[in-house]
Design a protein that fits this description.
twelve-stranded antiparallel sheet; 12 strands; globular
């Protein structure tokens, strides 16, 4: 066998090996690259197209979060014409998510992004006494937003408060990328108890207009 044929056979073998890579390999890579903060549970299918019973997220502070019934599709060639190479979605758990994704240094760029979660899930991460005991729901969507420096794009959504220390009602929420930080604006229901405020994210959450929150 000539060297050329041997190299050709090796290349074909490596391509086949990559194409048939199992989902468990992706689960291992996700866990290792995140230093154990992301764990795919009971992954099945393939590396490029697969599913898992859950994805556990362990933030640096606060309780772990669980996303149930996770599905993904990885198509690296889509990046050649600027399309997102990763698609991920889930159903149930502490939050539900559907998005197209580009991995970038320090974070991700998201397209066709949709997120829904309960306020009771978020309350432990908000450094504000007024956030304790919140009940309700957050819905957020964006056509294209970069969640890494430099921050770019916009997202909009709604916060529905059903109980807690803040006035009950529907609040609008806007996120806007501004290079070194992600600006946040929100406004509450109309009336004598109407509230509004804002803040930013630069690796830490800073909020104005919410009693007890981190401020400038």
């Amino acid at each position: 066998m000539t060297l050329r044929r041997w190299l050709f056979g090796l290349v074909l073998y490596l391509i086949a090996l990559a194409a048939l890579a199992p989902a468990t390999l992706l689960a291992w890579l996700v866990n290792e690259s995140s230093a154990g903060r992301l764990t795919l549970l009971a992954a099945s299918g393939g590396f490029w197209l697969g599913q898992a019973e859950g994805l556990e997220l362990r933030p640096l502070a606060g309780p772990a979060l669980m996303m149930n019934r996770v599905r993904w599709r990885i198509q690296p060639y889509r990046a050649l014409w600027g399309a997102a190479p990763v698609q991920i979605e889930n159903a149930g758990g502490d939050l539900t998510l559907a998005t197209q994704l580009w991995p970038v240094l320090g974070g991700a760029r998201l397209a066709r992004f949709r997120l829904q979660t309960g306020l009771a899930t978020l309350a432990p991460y908000l450094a504000a006494p007024m956030a304790k005991g919140l009940r309700g729901e957050l819905r957020l969507a964006s056509p294209d937003i970069r969640l890494a420096k430099p921050y770019r794009g916009r997202a909009s959504g709604e916060i529905q408060i059903d109980g807690g220390r803040l006035p009950v009602g529907s609040y609008s929420l806007e996120l806007a990328g501004a290079d070194r930080r992600l600006n946040i604006r929100w406004s509450g229901p109309q009336g004598p108890r109407a509230m509004s405020g804002g803040g930013w994210w630069d690796g830490k959450l800073h909020m104005d207009g919410l009693p007890g929150a981190i401020s400038r």
